């Protein structure tokens, strides 16, 4: 297992140089394209190790699974904008790794539920744009930019922008669900 992950990571960087700023210690040296290659390599490795677990049917939640990956962001956006906490949480696997827009890393569906419940209390309206995904069998690496509007406690309209990088897996019920969701990325 470790060997296959190392091999995937090494192949992700073949032919790519680390920036000179990284050598001088002024930059982490990872470009967006390198980061996406690292995520894809990790997703492939996770897909191979998680294939046995994916054969176990997901618990029935009463929420229909999103079986068309092109509709997953639409479903997430619609559920967020309508305040549908159960529908949002259903889009995540039980042991999801989630980084919220503030950069706080959380593990598991229960933590995601708590975080999203706090966000939904603000009655936000979100638009997910610049959506892209790369699919390999039952694993997908996706990116997006988002814009969220809400009113603060003083009634003043606030706007936040950011970006997301996610890894999704097609589950036994045919639905695509997030296994990694990082909503803390810069939108620039």
UniProtKB/TrEMBL annotation:
Residues 75-176 form the SnoaL-like domain. It comes from the Bacteria. This is SnoaL-like domain-containing protein. It comes from Novosphingobium mathurense. The lineage of its organism: Bacteria, Pseudomonadati, Pseudomonadota, Alphaproteobacteria, Sphingomonadales.
């Amino acid at each position: 297992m470790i060997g296959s992950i190392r091999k995937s990571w090494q192949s992700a960087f073949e032919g790519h140089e680390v920036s000179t700023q990284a050598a001088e210690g002024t930059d982490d040296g990872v470009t967006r394209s390198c980061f996406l290659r690292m995520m894809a390599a990790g997703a492939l490795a996770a897909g191979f190790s998680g294939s046995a677990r994916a054969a176990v049917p997901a618990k029935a939640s009463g929420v229909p699974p999103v079986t068309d990956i092109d509709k997953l962001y639409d479903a997430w956006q619609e559920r967020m904008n309508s305040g549908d906490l159960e529908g949002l949480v259903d889009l995540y696997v039980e042991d999801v790794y989630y980084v919220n827009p503030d950069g706080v890393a959380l593990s598991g569906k229960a933590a995601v539920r708590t975080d999203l419940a706090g966000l939904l209390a603000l009655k936000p309206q979100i638009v997910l744009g610049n959506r892209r995904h790369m699919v390999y069998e039952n694993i997908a690496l996706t990116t997006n930019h988002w814009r969220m509007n809400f009113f603060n406690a003083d009634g003043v309209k606030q706007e936040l922008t950011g970006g997301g990088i996610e890894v999704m897996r097609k589950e036994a019920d045919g639905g695509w669900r997030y296994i990694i969701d990082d909503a803390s990325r810069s939108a620039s």
